[in-house]
Amino acid sequence: MSTPIFDELTVGDVIAEREFPLTRDSLVRYAGASGDFNPIHYRDDVAASVGLPGVLAHGMLTMGFAVQPVVDWAGDPARVVDYAVKFTRPVVVHPQDGALVTVVAKIGALDEGVARVDLTVSFDGKTVLGKAQVRVALGRR
Amino acid sequence: MPVNPELQGRVFPPAPPYLVGLEKVREFSRAVFASHPINFETDAALAAGHAGVVAPPTFAVVVQEQTLAQLLSEPDAGIDFTRVVHGDQRFTYTRPIVAGDELTATLTVTSVKTLGPHAMVTAESTMVDATGAHVVTATSTLVVRGDE
């Protein structure tokens, strides 16, 4: 995979778009991998008992996959030097139909060899992460 | 019990060192839909100049978790886990986490703010490697819901 050339980038460029079909299996897999076993992420009865509309994806799972299109674009996961998000809306994962989350990654700023990539992460037509920004160190030519 | 405002500025004792295992990195990589070979294959990681398979950008949360558990179990913190909502999250890297790293995380409560019945607690976990060099800082803001 080639590395993007910093000096050829322009603010506003869409550098990646991807859809992530989540299922309940995805949540169980993330629970095991991360060690976050909060039952609101796999038990309908517990989710309902605390007033949630359904079983929710871990916010950290959404944060975790939303950066992957940027990693693939950057050509090396180590080029991600800073990544921040706000959790603004939950992703409700239906037991049969799952949930489809879309990620659009756009160049937000360019400064001294570091590209700021702004992510728009949506579920059901609404954004679920706020101010999701990835700083990618690309170096100058 | 409301969140204790005196938590602000408190520095916790370092958590026990976390040894980053190759299969754990692969398992985490699969769970976050990573597909880059540098997240899975030692050969690919070495060829790119890394000391081992590189963990995905959010892997540090696994190590940070130990320090947040210290905060939540602090007797005078006044943080009821069942009322905690994750508000925001940041990772700032000096270098990537690689398989084989031994990371020691130290948590500092950088701010406690009250918003009506709710409190916002910002906690920073600084992670260093076995030589004491900085690897990553993970910062979380936890929103603790109070009675309406």
Summarize the SSE layout with pairings.
The complex is a heterodimer of chains A (141) and B (148).
Chain A: E1 14-22, H1 24-34, H2 44-49, H3 59-66, H4 68-74, E2 80-87, E3 99-111, E4 114-123, E5 126-127, E6 129-137
Antiparallel strand pairs in A: 1-3, 2-6, 3-4, 4-5, 4-6
Chain B: E1 18-19, H1 22-31, H2 42-47, H3 60-72, E2 84-93, E3 102-115, E4 118-128, E5 134-144
Provide the descriptors you would attach to this structure in a database record.
heterodimer; A: 141 residues; alpha+beta; Thiol Ester Dehydrase, Chain A; six-stranded antiparallel sheet; 23% helix; 36% strand; elongated; B: 148 residues; five-stranded antiparallel sheet; 20% helix; 32% strand
Mean pLDDT level of chain A: 95
Structural class of chain B: alpha+beta
Query: Looking at CATH, which topology of the domain at 6-22 and 58-137 in chain A would you report?
Result: Thiol Ester Dehydrase, Chain A
> What's the Cα radius of gyration of chain A?
16 Å
The H-level CATH homologous superfamily of chain B, spelled out, is Hotdog Thioesterase
Terminal-residue CA separation of chain B: 14 Å
What's the quaternary structure here? heterodimer
Alpha-beta classification of chain A = alpha+beta
Q: What is the chain-wise order of helices and strands of chain A?
A: EHHHHEEEEE
Q: What would you call the shape of chain B? A: elongated
Offer a quick outline of the entry.
Chain A is an alpha+beta fold. Chain A has helices at 24-34, 44-49, 59-66, 68-74; strands spanning 14-22, 80-87, 99-111, 114-123, 126-127, 129-137. With 148 residues, chain B is α+β, with helices and mostly antiparallel strands.
Written description of the protein model:
Chain B: It comes from Mycetocola zhadangensis. Chain B: InterPro entries: FAS1-like_DH_region, HadA-like, HotDog_dom_sf. Chain B: Residues 16-137 form the FAS1-like dehydratase domain. The complex is a heterodimer of chains A (141) and B (148). Chain A has 141 residues and is α+β, with helices and mostly antiparallel strands. Chain A has four helices and six strands, in the order βααααβββββ. In chain A, a hairpin with a 2-residue loop joins strand 4 (114-123) and strand 5. Chain A is elongated. Chain A starts with 13 loop residues before the first strand and ends with a strand. The model of chain A has no long low-confidence stretch (mean pLDDT 95). Chain B has 148 residues and is of the alpha+beta class. In chain B, 20% of the residues lie in helices and 32% in strands. Chain B has helices spanning 22-31, 42-47, 60-72; strands at residues 18-19, 84-93, 102-115, 118-128, 134-144. The longest helix of chain B is centred in the middle third of the chain and has 13 residues, at 60-72.
